[in-house]
Design a protein that fits this description.
109 residues; 2 helices; three-stranded antiparallel beta sheet; extended; two-stranded antiparallel sheet
């Protein structure tokens, strides 16, 4: 492997770094380690909660014919988080959808 290829490989596996400003006003660096990250497509989501946690399931519906009886959903990911983290997720998703609507128009059901 040449030095050029080695550098590219290291860049692919090196954790991403993002700078944020915490509430205290001082800058902190957040390192996002993406070396073990996996991406998958999901077209179904449902959620439940208790007082202590929020559970979100993501899955894949492969039943394309809506009139074909029961739907079979393959749950691929279950994310369990605190209500505080879920509230932050809600804020982020609201901002994301607002940006989407301003760029492409409102989503339709």
């Amino acid at each position: 492997m040449t030095k050029k290829n080695t550098t590219r490989q290291q860049a692919k596996t090196r954790p991403k770094t993002k700078t944020i400003a915490p509430a205290a006003g001082e800058e902190r660096r957040v390192k996002l380690d993406t070396t073990r990250m996996k991406s998958s497509y999901c077209n179904v989501c449902n959620a439940t909660s208790t007082r202590e946690e929020v559970v979100i399931n993501f899955g894949l519906n492969q039943s394309w014919d809506r009139n074909d009886g029961d739907l079979e959903i393959e749950i691929q990911h279950r994310i369990i988080m605190s209500p505080h983290a879920a509230s932050k997720l809600r804020e982020i998703l609201n901002e994301l959808i607002d940006e989407y609507d301003s760029r492409y128009g409102p989503l339709k059901d």
